[in-house]
Amino acid sequence: MGKPFFSLQTIITLLVCGVVALSLAVTDILISQEVADNTQKNLANKAKNIARIVAHSPLVIEALNGQRADTEIQPFANEIRQITSVEFVVVMDMKGTRKSHPDINKVGQPFVGGDEGEALKGQEYFSYAKGTLGMSLRAFTPIVTSTGKQVGAVAVGILLNDVNQAVAQSRQIIYISIGFGLLVGVIGAL
C-alpha cells in the first residue's frame, strides 16, 4: 500500500481552515449588508433631522411668510450646511423656487430633481435623485407656520458618493475583523 498523498495532519488543518473561512464568509455576507443598511439609514436620519431643524427655524418661517427678508435664509442655510457637513440645505417657497443653495448663483432658480412635489404638498420623505450637485440622498420636510399654513419646504442632501464612502468605511472594519478571525483560525488549525 502506497503512502497517502496528504498526511492526516494536513487534511485536518485544511478542513479546519476551510470551515473557518466558510463561516467567516457567511458572517461577512450577513453582517456586511446589515452594516450597509444601517449606515444608509443613519445618514438618512441625519439629513431628516437637519431638515426638521431648518423647517422649524423662526427665521426661515418668517422669511417665507413675508415677515422678514428672504435674503436672510441663504446665510442661515449655509451655516447649517457647514456645521452639519451635509452637501446642501435648500429652502424653497411654495413654487419650488430656491431661497438657499450652496452655489449662490442657483438662489432664485427652480429646485432641480423633480422629487420636491410631495414636500410642497405637506409630506416628509426621503428620495434619491440627481440635482445640480449630482446624485444624492435627500430628506424633504415641509415648512409650516404656527397657524398651520405651509409656506415652503426644505431639502437636505448628502451626495451618494459620500453615502457610498461611509458604507465602504463601515465594511472595511468588517473585512479587517474577518481577516483577523481567519488568521486566528489558521493558527489554531496549525
Shape: rod-shaped
Give start-end ranges of low-pLDDT stretches. Answer: none
Total helix count? Answer: 4
The strand line-up of the biggest sheet is 1-4-3-2
Mean pLDDT across every amino acid position: 86
Cα-based radius of gyration, to the nearest Å: 26 Å
Provide a quick synopsis of the model.
The protein is of the alpha+beta class and 190 residues long.
Describe the structure.
This protein is an alpha+beta fold and 190 residues long. Helices cover 51% and strands 18% of the residues. The protein is built from four helices and four strands; from the N terminus they run αααββββα. It has helices spanning 8-55, 58-64, 73-84, 160-189; strands at residues 88-93, 125-131, 134-144, 150-159. A four-stranded antiparallel sheet has the order 1-4-3-2. α1 (8-55) runs antiparallel to α4 (160-189). It is rod-shaped and about 95 Å long. The two termini are 28 Å apart. The relative contact order is 0.17. The model has no long low-confidence stretch (mean pLDDT 86).
Helix-strand layout with pairing:
Layout (H helix, E strand, L loop, with lengths): L7 H48 L2 H7 L8 H12 L3 E6 L31 E7 L2 E11 L5 E10 H30 L1
Antiparallel strand pairs: 1-4, 2-3, 3-4
Keywords, separated by commas or semicolons:
190 residues, alpha+beta, rod-shaped, single chain
